[in-house]
Specification:
about 280 residues; alpha/beta; 8 helices; UDP-N-acetylmuramoyl-L-alanine:D-glutamate ligase; nine-stranded mixed β-sheet; four-stranded mixed β-sheet
């Protein structure tokens, strides 16, 4: 079983039909759906047939209940912590070239605490995947570390996604390098920009470093794995789809190159439609 801990939030994806008109109306496609790196990872893993468990804190409100029902309907074993604060929201503006600008209101998700976690949630977990977002703010960071320790104590593996250049910059490059050295994850996923921001070669920090290159595929085991050419509509969630497919293949005994080939296929399919989750 795969597990992730982090945020389950509402994505509001805005795709303008043309150039944005300042101080005026711009026709656009607007889509509401579940988001959050941890939740997206689990949704894709479940879609690929792998048991997946999500631990997240969200508001006990209409949005939170809707998101919980949605993630459970996708086949994810959801372990919620209900809160009085509102459920978090991200507004995603998709540009004409597929680039994204994200505006985030974290809400209840970042207040998850170690005392919220139940020991039985970590039973049977073979690998925990943790977005670096979970380390950037307390008390979620403490909860994430507690979860990692609980999975490690039961013999499970650790995967970390570096998540965000801006987040790494704010958290501190050397601080994250220190975290990776202490946690010793088996896998680390990073975009080329995130890997550059870290400053230390990923190969010194993990057994399986994976550099995501978007439409160009990825680099793993010192080799580039190309992605198929597709018509990109929305890249939101593609990195989570990639990580989920890679981790599923890895758990089933695939080599890093085999896992990468499977992952680029899944991620390439993910960008051909709007939204962060499989449909």
């Amino acid at each position: 079983m795969l597990m992730s801990i982090g945020e389950l939030i509402l994505d509001i994806t805005i795709t303008p039909e043309g150039h944005v008109q300042p101080n005026d109306d711009t026709p656009a496609a607007i889509r509401l759906g579940g988001g959050g790196q941890a939740a997206n990872f689990c949704a894709w893993a479940a879609h690929l047939g792998e048991p997946a468990r999500l631990v997240a804190r969200l508001g006990d409100d209409a949005t939170g209940r809707r998101l919980a029902a949605e993630i459970e309907a996708s086949g994810v074993d959801f372990c919620p912590v209900w809160a009085g604060e509102p459920t978090g929201t991200i507004a995603i503006l998709v540009g004409p070239g597929g680039e994204r600008s994200m505006f985030t209101q974290h809400g209840a998700g970042t207040s998850l605490q170690p005392r919220d976690l139940r020991p039985e949630w970590f039973e049977g977990v073979d690998l925990i995947h943790v977005p670096a977002y979970a380390f950037f703010v307390e008390p979620l960071a403490a909860a994430a570390r507690h979860a990692i320790e609980s999975v490690r104590a039961r013999g499970g593996q650790l995967s970390i996604d570096l998540s965000s250049v801006a987040g790494l910059r704010g958290y501190g490059r050397l601080r994250m390098v220190g975290d990776l050295r202490r946690l010793a994850p088996e896998l680390v996923f990073a975009s080329a920009a995130e890997a550059d921001e870290l400053g230390t070669p990923l190969a010194k920090l993990t057994a399986i470093p994976v550099i995501k290159l978007g439409a160009a595929g990825c680099i793993v085991a010192g080799k580039q794995v190309a992605a198929p050419a597709v018509h990109e509509v929305d890249p939101t969630g593609a990195g989570d789809a990639f990580a989920a497919a890679f981790c599923v293949s890895h758990l089933h005994g695939a080599s890093p190159l085999e896992a990468a080939r499977a992952a680029v296929q899944v991620a390439s399919a993910a960008v051909t439609r709007v939204g962060a989750r499989p449909q």
